[in-house]
Design brief:
This protein has 2 domains: 14-51 and 64-298, 2-Layer Sandwich (D-amino Acid Aminotransferase, Chain A, domain 1), CATH 3.30.470.30; 312-400, no CATH class. The two termini are 37 Å apart. It is α+β, with helices and mostly antiparallel strands. The chain has helices spanning 18-31, 36-49, 58-63, 73-83, 93-96, 101-109, 125-128, 213-227, 251-259, 338-344, 389-400, 405-426, and strands at 113-117, 129-135, 138-145, 148-153, 158-162, 181-189, 194-203, 206-207, 240-243, 247-248, 266-273, 281-289, 312-317, 322-324, 332-335, 351-364, 367-377. Residues 111-286 form the Snurportin-1 m3G cap-binding domain. One of its GO terms (cellular component) is cytoplasm.
Length: 427
């Protein structure tokens, strides 16, 4: 790859307030700390509470223990939306254990920290950020406790139920205390049957939610190696675990993540703010970026694996007919006509797929002003959430004026030059 000599900071017209939200997120993190230990215990116990077979299905569940568990969404979806308590009010295992079907999956999907898509280059990129090559595969929680290990996909459905070398991950004499547990944020890479660990939430019952990313990465690398979880599969360790290499986001680190050889198929780059704690939901302190050289799928494809002629967007319907993103607070993209709503039978919370027409997206002062949308259909029923605002904008940029690796390198070089000038002036 040729040497990059770009010395300009990347600038584009404001299409988001992502940098401002990064600063606010760090400020809130400093001002308020949640009870992360209790949150981790609830998550670990609830994952297994909802996975316990009922007496009428115990034999069938035993026979299929090693296979992904399918959910009959059609028969439960409407009852779940009408009868289940509000997800944000569910705080303990007794409440969560009553959830079924779609609401169960939605609760677990909300426990993951979801990166925003990078639509502007962060300030202090080389000083305050890590970068890693994201593996292609299924994003999931992996939880070990009570002598077994369970992984759940991003939509909440169980992927695997298996023994592992993680703390309390298998029924062996040498395993950890019964009250111990471990929670990992992983990507399951199908080709080599490996769980690649991108973050660690808990280890041996010790919560890492309120630890910064720098400490979590250090802890993950050292503890995984000590546990034997990185060893080849065996009788009490069905899948291998492997940490993903993490680099400082300077010029050498960025190019190593972008062009370096890894044992898995890449699916873009992940950027972590070094000071960020682990928080559920979308966060601007973790970012994902792709181009055609480090990902097979930069732009979303249809069911045939082909890029549609027009960008597709999945949004959530509200009572007043507006359609919104999955962000908190959400971004309104438009409003459906009440006559169309009455004929369609769609209800609040329905996910709807739209295409972006030739009018595109219009931004004013970093905010969405107008979107030219056309309704298409309902997305796959296994889908749990609408698209985030940053994903919609990233996909739009990828079709028109994408961020490129040279833009990052230019920003890093510009920041380095400014630091050198500051040092000279202070000297």
């Amino acid at each position: 790859m040729p040497t990059h000599e770009i010395r300009r900071a990347y600038k584009r017209p404001a299409i988001s307030d992502q940098q401002k939200r990064r600063e606010l997120s760090l400020l809130r993190q400093q001002q308020s700390r949640s009870d992360a230990q209790s949150q981790a215990r609830r998550l670990a116990s609830t994952l297994f509470s909802l996975n316990q077979p009922t007496p009428s299905t115990s034999s069938a569940a035993t026979a299929a223990a090693d296979d992904p568990i399918d959910v009959d969404i059609d028969s439960e979806e409407e009852d779940d939306q009408q009868n289940s308590p509000q997800l944000e009010n569910i705080k303990d295992v007794r409440q969560a254990s009553k959830l079924r079907g779609q609401e169960s999956r939605r609760w677990f999907a909300r426990q993951l920290m979801l990166p925003e898509w990078m639509i502007d280059v962060p300030d202090r990129l080389s000083q305050d950020w890590f970068v890693l090559a994201r593996p292609a595969g299924k994003r999931c929680f992996v939880v070990s406790t009570n002598g077994t290990t369970v992984s759940r996909q991003r939509n909440g459905i169980v992927l695997h139920h298996f023994p592992s070398a993680l703390p309390c991950g298998a029924r062996t004499r040498g395993n950890s205390a019964a009250q111990s547990y471990c929670i990992l944020d992983c990507i399951f890479h199908e080709m080599d049957q490996t769980y690649y660990v991108i973050d660690m939430l808990c280890w041996g019952g010790y919560s890492l939610y309120d630890c910064n990313a720098e400490f979590r990465f250090f802890w993950s690398n050292s503890k995984l190696a000590e546990s034997g979880a990185c060893e080849p599969p065996s009788q009490y360790h069905r899948y291998r675990f492997s940490p993903v290499p993490v680099y400082n986001c300077d010029q050498n680190g960025l190019l190593s993540a972008y062009t370096g050889q890894v044992p898995y198929v890449k699916d873009g780059l992940l950027f972590y703010n070094k000071h960020a704690h682990y928080q559920s939901g979308n966060t601007p302190l973790t970012l994902v970026w792709k181009d055609e050289k480090c990902s097979q799928y930069v732009i979303d494809t249809d069911s045939k694996g082909e890029v549609p002629s027009k960008q597709q967007v999945v949004l959530e319907l509200q009572n007043d007919g507006t359609v919104i993103t999955s962000d908190d607070p959400p971004v309104v993209f438009g409003c459906l006509d009440q006559e169309i709503l009455q004929k369609s039978g769609f209800c609040q919370g329905s996910l709807l797929r739209f295409s972006i027409n030739d009018g595109g997206l219009t931004f004013i002062d970093g905010k969405l002003e107008k979107a030219d949308l056309q309704f298409q259909d309902k997305p796959n029923r296994a889908r749990a959430f609408a698209d985030s605002y940053s994903k919609v904008v990233f996909q739009y940029m990828a079709r028109h004026s994408p961020l490129k690796i040279d833009d990052f390198l230019g920003t890093i070089n510009s920041q380095s030059d400014q630091e050198s000038k500051d040092v000279e002036m202070s000297g």
